[in-house]
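Recap quiz, item 2
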Amino acid sequence: MLELVNVEVRYHEVILVIRGISLEVQQGQIVSLLGANGAGKTTILKAISGILHHEDGKVSEGFVKFEGKRIDRLESYAIAEAGILHVMEGRRIFEHLSVEENLLTGAIMHGNVRTHSDLEKVYTYFPKLATVRKRTSGYLSGGEQQMVVIGRALMGQPKLFLLDEPSLGLAPLLIKEIFDILKTINRDEGISMLLVEQNARIALDSSNYGYVLENGRIVLDGLSDKLKQNEDIKEFYLGLSELGSRRSYRDFKHYSRRKRWL
Amino acid sequence: MGKILNYIIAGLANGCIYSLIAIGFVLIYKSSSILNFAQGAIVILSAFVFYSFTIQLGIPIVIAILLALAFGALLGFVIERFILDRLIGQPILAIIILTLAFSEFLKGIMNLGWGTDILSAPQLFPRGNITILNIATLDYSRIAFLVITFVLISIFAIFYNKTKIGLAMKATSDDTIAAGSVGIRVRRVFAVTWIISCITAAAGGILVTNVMGIHYKVAEIGYKAMAVALVGGLQSLPGIIIIGPVMGILEFLSAAYLDPLVDGGMRDLAPFIILLIVLIFRPSGIFGWERIERI
C-alpha cells in the first residue's frame, strides 16, 4: 500500500540526507526500519507524512506512492486525511489540552460521524487513559503520553501508522506493554505500520519485515525472522555474538570491529 | 463614596473593551507567536469604515455595524492570506516589525481618507443616565458597553471551547506541526484566527469611538490592550478577560486621585506602570503559561 521508489531527500536544496531509498509496506504488515543515529530513519518518515515541507526539506528524486497515488507533494494534513498518521518522535502531545481533548483533535478532520465510538475504542485499547481523561496531558507520565499520541492517531481512522521510536525514554515493562497494544491494533484494526526503532530487538520481534539503514542508504533488508539470524545484525544491533550468549569484555578487542556494508 | 463607584463602573466599562481588543492579540500570539502591533490601527480603521457607512452613505446603523464587522473579517483574511503568507518560515521578528509597519500604513490611509479631525461617531445608545441607590449615576452607553462586551466575550468563549474549530485552534497553538500531522488544516486555522481577531477589533472600535470620537490617534488604545494582554499573560484568555476590567478600573481611579498630584496624564500612564511592575515580578504575565515541566 505504501511504496517508496528511489527516494532522495534534500534539506535546504543542498544537504543530501537520503540517497535513493526504495521500500514497501504491504497491507496489514508491520515493517521496521533500523539504523544508528543520523542514519535517516526519521527523515524517511517525515518525507512520507509531509512534515518535511515544514523543515525546508524536499523529496528531490523518486516518489512516494500510497494506494497508487503520489503523495510526496501533498501537505501534511492531506496525507493524514488519506490515512497515513505519523506518530512523531518525542511524544508531541498538545500539552495544555486534556487527554480527551488531545484524542478529539485526531478526529477533527473526519467530522462527527464516528467520534464517539472511536473514543471508546481508544479507551479499550488503553484503559489507563480512561482513568485520566480530564487531566492536563502535559503532566502525564511518559508512557501515558505515548499512549495519548498513539490514541490520537487512532482517532484519525488510519490505514497506516508511521511510528517514530515509540520506546524512547520508557521503562522496559512499559515498552513491552505499548508494543503488545500496537500488535493488537495491527491485528484487530488491520492498520499497517512502519516502525522506526533504536530498540532493534523489540522492533524485529514485533515486525514482519525489516530494513537496515546506514548513512541514508538501505544496506540490508529481509523478513524479520531472517534478520534476527544475521550475524552482523546480531553483533551490531542486538549486542550478541554467539547465539544468545552475552560477550564478556575480557574477550573483547580494544577496538571494536566496524562493519563496512558496501 | 458615590464618586468612587462612578469611577469604578466607568473603568469597568472601558476595561471590558480592552479585554475585547486584547482577545485578538492573544489569539494571534497563541497560534503563531506573532505580536500584532497593527491591532490598534485595525480597531480605528473599522471605526472609520463604520463612520463612512452610517454618516456618509446613510446606511441604517444595525446593517452598518454588520458591514463594519464584515470589513474587519475581510481585513483579517487579507492580512493572513496575502501578507503573512509570503513570510512563512521567516524569523518571527521580521513579521512583528511588519505588523508595526502595517500599523503605520493603515494610519496613513486613515489620514488620507478621513482627514485628521476628530469625527464624532453616530450615536449608538440613547443619551441619559440612571441613578442606582442614589450613590452612583451611570450613563446608558457605559451599561451598554458592559452588556455587549459580556455577550461578545461569552459567544467567543463558547466558540473557542465547544466547537471543533476552537479545538483545532487550541491544538495549533500548542504545536503547529503536530496539529498538521493529525490532519488539522493549519493555514485555515490561521485564517480563522486573524478573522476573529479583526472582528473583535472592529467591535471594540465601534464601541470605543462612540465615547472617544474617531481619530487615528485613538489607535493607541491598541497599546493599552497590549498592556492588558501582557499583564494577563499572552497565552491566557481567562487572564485577559479578568485583567481588562481590573486595568480599566485602576486607570480611572489613578486618573481621578493621582492626577491632581502629578499635573495630569495618569490615565494614559497607569496601564504601563502596572505592566512594568507585573513584568518585573512575573515575566510571563499573571495568568500566562510557564512551560509545563514534568518532574
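The mean pLDDT of chain A is 88.
The longest helix of chain A spans residues 172-189.
End of item.
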